[in-house]
Amino acid sequence: MRKMNKANHWLPMKPHLLRRSSQTVFLGVCLWIGWRFVEFYFYSLSMGGPLVSRPPGVEAFLPISGLMSARYWLQTHIIHPVHPAGLLIFGAVVTVSFLFKRSFCSWVCPFGLVSEKLADMGCAVFGRNFLLPKRADWPLRSLKYLILGFFVWVIFFGMDLTGLREFLDSSYNKTADVRLLLFFLHPSTTTVAVLAALIGLSVLIRYFWCRYLCPYGALLGLVGLLSPARIKRNIPSCIECGKCARVCPASLPVNKLATVHSDECSLCLECVQSCPVADTLSVGAAFSRFRIGPLLIASTIALIFLFTFILGKACGHWQTSVTPDQAARQIKQLQYILP
Question: Which of 33, 188, 280, 297 is most buried when burial is the number of CB atoms within 10 A of its CB?
Answer without folding.
Answer: 297
